């Protein structure tokens, strides 16, 4: 079973730049809408919830269609809803932006229902060093494409990490699809 499903050029460079610009406006306007992860040994990144940003409905519509197709083509999971806002993370070299190995399935009532994780690469690969998204479905480590606009989808239970960003800033968008427990 291939666990990493990728859609190159799911979004154009111009569309990625529009998403980055929209979250940057929110960040400068309203610090309350901006999350800062607390456990810096696990993760250092700034977060913006897409549901808090006006004018990004087209992004969600595109992502829903991509998840639907990936599930038909590959995963065949019992997916029922998108129970959380997508989030845009910004990993900045100036504060060692990274996300250590983890699975997205959590203890909470919503996080426990996560079944697929989708990550959209928003930044131009040449605009940052490091910051690779790596997925470890079994013994081998797979690297997600760094190409701007590429979408990577994998089961939320698979371990994954974002290696530290050494220069520049990496922006990515994450969306989860939810459903009942595996059986
Ligand atoms: O930024 C990424 O590429 C991955 C983000 C992630 O793993 C998460 O939000 O759970
Ligand atoms: Fe994750």
TrEMBL record:
Coiled-coil regions listed in the entry: none
Top class in the EC scheme: oxidoreductase
PROSITE patterns: FE2OG_OXY
Domain Fe2OG dioxygenase: 82-179
Any one GO molecular function term: oxidoreductase activity
Pfam families reported in the protein's UniProt record: 2OG-FeII_Oxy_3
UniProt KW keywords: Dioxygenase, Iron, Metal-binding, Oxidoreductase, Vitamin C
EC code(s) of this entry: 1.14.11.-
Cofactor dependence: L-ascorbate
SMART domains xrefs: P4Hc
Protein name per Swiss-Prot or TrEMBL: 2OG-Fe(II) oxygenase
Native source species: Aliisedimentitalea scapharcae
């Amino acid at each position: 079973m291939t666990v990493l499903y990728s859609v190159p050029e799911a979004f154009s460079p111009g569309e990625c730049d529009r998403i980055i610009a929209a979250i940057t406006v929110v960040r400068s306007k309203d610090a309350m809408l901006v999350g800062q992860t607390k456990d810096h040994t696990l993760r250092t990144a700034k977060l913006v919830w897409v549901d808090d940003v006006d004018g990004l409905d087209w992004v969600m519509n595109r992502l829903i269609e991509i998840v639907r197709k990936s599930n038909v083509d590959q995963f065949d999971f019992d997916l029922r809803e998108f129970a959380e806002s997508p989030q845009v993370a910004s990993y900045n070299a100036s504060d060692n932006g990274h996300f250590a190995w983890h699975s997205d399935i959590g203890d909470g009532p919503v996080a426990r229902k996560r079944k697929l994780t989708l990550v959209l690469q928003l930044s131009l690969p040449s605009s940052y060093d490091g910051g690779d998204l790596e997925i470890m479905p079994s013994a081998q480590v797979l690297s997600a494409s760094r190409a701007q606009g590429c979408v990577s989808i994998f089961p939320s239970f698979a371990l994954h990490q974002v290696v530290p960003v050494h220069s520049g800033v990496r922006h990515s968008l994450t969306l989860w699809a939810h459903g009942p427990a595996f059986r």
